């Protein structure tokens, strides 16, 4: 089945130690998104790629970066994780273009910072 | 994107219809109403969307008022597996972000 895959599902990192989360998709969608969801809060968009074009949300901290080496893969890099970065990180994809398309979400990676 | 208002929580008996309301009084003419749900510890799942006509799919029905200032998501026969947070989102025609509000926690009980 076509899907959005996130690895790992659970990640533990130390305060200040760089960490990378990965997302892959078999849907061949143009657009890939990264959302952050803290405990008991709604998901919040960090950034998205339309093909190779990167779009950062204005309030996304500089500590968060992303790479999209090809259509299928997208990575979220957290350069120096703080305790406040502990959250569920959700990857989503959608088709791009003029029409309105739904987003398909992966299962998320739960990040713990110790 | 227009802001939405939803009740924080609702209960529903298993087998009955669940009717989840959403207010979006500042919606503009080219904005769609989307519904997603998030079951505990999973990623959000798309349910349905509409512009001005009522819509139905295998999961749910979406009723949008004539003035488009509010809508209702209907799960016709709720099951225990429908227990989730339901998000009503208004967005324009671009491919851009979904702005999630706080949603409605729907609890389906036996």
Question: How many β-strand stretches of chain A?
Answer: 11
- What is the overall pLDDT average of chain B? 93
Q: Can you tell me the residue ranges of chain A where pLDDT is under 50 for at least 5 consecutive residues?
A: none
Number of β-strand runs of chain B? 9
Radius of gyration of chain A: 13 Å
**Arrangement of strands in the largest sheet of chain B:** 1-9-8-3-4
Structural class per helix/strand content of chain B? mainly beta
Low-pLDDT sequence parts of chain B: none
In brief, what are we looking at here?
Chain A has 114 residues and is mostly beta strands.
Task: Describe the fold and architecture.
The complex is a heterodimer of chains A (114) and B (110). Chain A is mainly β and 114 residues long. Chain A has strands at 4-7, 10-13, 19-25, 31-37, 44-50, 53-56, 64-67, 73-78, 87-94, 104-105, 109-113. In chain A, strands 2, 4, 5, 6, 9, 10 and 11 form a seven-stranded mixed sheet that branches. In chain A, strands 1-3-8-7 form a four-stranded antiparallel sheet, with no helix packed on it. In chain A, a hairpin with a 5-residue loop joins strand 7 and strand 8. Chain A is globular, with a radius of gyration of 13 Å. The model of chain A has no long low-confidence stretch (mean pLDDT 93). Chain B has 110 residues and is mostly beta strands. Chain B contains no helices and nine strands. Chain B has strands at 9-13, 18-23, 32-38, 45-50, 55-56, 61-64, 70-75, 84-91, 104-109. In chain B, the strands form two sheets. A five-stranded mixed sheet of chain B has the order 1-9-8-3-4, with no helix packed on it. In chain B, strand 5 (55-56) and strand 6 form a beta hairpin. The model of chain B has no long low-confidence stretch (mean pLDDT 93).
């Amino acid at each position: 089945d076509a899907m959005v895959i996130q690895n790992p599902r659970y990640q533990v990192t130390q305060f200040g130690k760089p960490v990378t989360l990965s997302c892959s998709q078999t849907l061949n969608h143009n657009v890939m998104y990264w959302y952050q969801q803290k405990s008991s809060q709604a998901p919040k968009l960090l950034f998205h790629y339309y093909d190779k074009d990167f779009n950062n949300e204005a309030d996304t901290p500089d500590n968060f970066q992303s790479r999209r080496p090809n259509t299928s893969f997208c990575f979220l890099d957290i350069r120096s994780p703080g305790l406040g970065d502990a959250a569920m990180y959700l990857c989503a994809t959608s088709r791009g273009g003029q029409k309105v398309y739904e987003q398909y979400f992966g299962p998320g990676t739960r990040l713990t910072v110790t | 994107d227009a802001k939405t208002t939803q009740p924080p929580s609702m209960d529903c008996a298993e087998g009955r219809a669940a009717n989840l309301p959403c207010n979006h009084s500042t919606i503009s003419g080219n904005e769609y109403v989307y519904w997603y749900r998030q079951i505990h510890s999973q990623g959000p799942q798309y349910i349905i969307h509409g512009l001005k006509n009522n819509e139905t799919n295998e999961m749910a029905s979406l009723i949008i008022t004539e003035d488009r200032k509010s809508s209702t998501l209907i799960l016709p026969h709720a099951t225990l597996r429908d227990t989730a947070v339901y998000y009503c989102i208004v967005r324009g025609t671009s491919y851009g972000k979904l702005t999630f509000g706080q949603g409605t926690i729907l609890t389906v009980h036996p």
